[in-house]
Amino acid sequence: MIELVTIKPTKAAGNALIIRGVLAIIFAVLVLAWPKLSVATLVILFAIFIVLDGITEIIQWSTNRRLPGARRYSSWVLVAGIVSVLGGILAIIWPNVTAVILTLIIGWWALAIGVLQVVAALFLKKAFSLWWLGLLSGGVSIILGLVLVIFPGAGIMGFLILLAVFVALFGVVLVTDGVNTRKLAM
């Protein structure tokens, strides 16, 4: 059974969400602006994005872990941050992977992050009125991950557009959640 906790929102947590959202939107714009990127270039861009996203989550974890009631929730933030950093490092180590392998790596990452976001959103259900944004973001991430894992042979151009749209939506949700978290912290 999931134990729901009450966590007091902080400006630092809101800032971390906004930074993660802005990074996601920048990544999406770069992919859409240069749709003929090579697979290796896409790998490096994606790796940079998820490493920065993971580092931001780890910083968010270190900021919030001492707050009353935040221990169990913050553990999920730490796990999500570590998964992102490790995924980015793997992508940097093997930048010349095929489109199918890249698709599978991103698909499994999206599945893992989606599940962690859903769990985190459920923990925040009583703490934040907009907890459902995290649930929505996690659901979209799970759907993207499933599509990419089940159909990895899809063309890289279609994949690039799908990835950019997902990351842009993910970024908008994070920025919205960050702004609302900052408002609640005041």
UniProtKB/TrEMBL annotation:
<feature type="transmembrane region" description="Helical">
    <location>
        <begin position="73"/>
        <end position="94"/>
    </location>
</feature>
<feature type="transmembrane region" description="Helical">
    <location>
        <begin position="100"/>
        <end position="123"/>
    </location>
</feature>
<keyword id="KW-1133">Transmembrane helix</keyword>
<keyword id="KW-0472">Membrane</keyword>
<protein>
    <submittedName>
        <fullName>Uncharacterized membrane protein HdeD (DUF308 family)</fullName>
    </submittedName>
</protein>
<feature type="transmembrane region" description="Helical">
    <location>
        <begin position="156"/>
        <end position="176"/>
    </location>
</feature>
<keyword id="KW-0812">Transmembrane</keyword>
<dbReference type="GO" id="GO:0005886">
    <property type="term" value="C:plasma membrane"/>
</dbReference>
<feature type="transmembrane region" description="Helical">
    <location>
        <begin position="12"/>
        <end position="34"/>
    </location>
</feature>
<feature type="transmembrane region" description="Helical">
    <location>
        <begin position="130"/>
        <end position="150"/>
    </location>
</feature>
<dbReference type="InterPro" id="IPR005325">
    <property type="entry name" value="DUF308_memb"/>
</dbReference>
<feature type="transmembrane region" description="Helical">
    <location>
        <begin position="40"/>
        <end position="61"/>
    </location>
</feature>
<dbReference type="InterPro" id="IPR052712">
    <property type="entry name" value="Acid_resist_chaperone_HdeD"/>
</dbReference>
<dbReference type="Pfam" id="PF03729">
    <property type="entry name" value="DUF308"/>
</dbReference>
